[in-house]
Description:
By secondary structure, this protein is mainly alpha-helical. Helix content is 44%, strand content 5%.
Amino acid sequence: MILKPGKSVNSPNSYKPISLLSFFSKVFEKLIFKCLLSFINTNLPDNQFGFCNNHFTIHQIHRIVDKISYSFKKKLICTDDFLDVA
């Protein structure tokens, strides 16, 4: 940990964290990241919009509004679940 200039020594927010990885750790990290990305992009359903390339919130909103409109026109029951994980 390195103290930020002009900050108090007693506050934990006054320090910069330092993480030094070896060359092999960096290469391993990049390989795992690429594997995770390929897994996520191939195994997630089309309805999954979080953490996916070319899937934006506005597309999901349009999809939901279309489903609700269709349900109203056909006089069907329309239910939905929303989950926001931070």
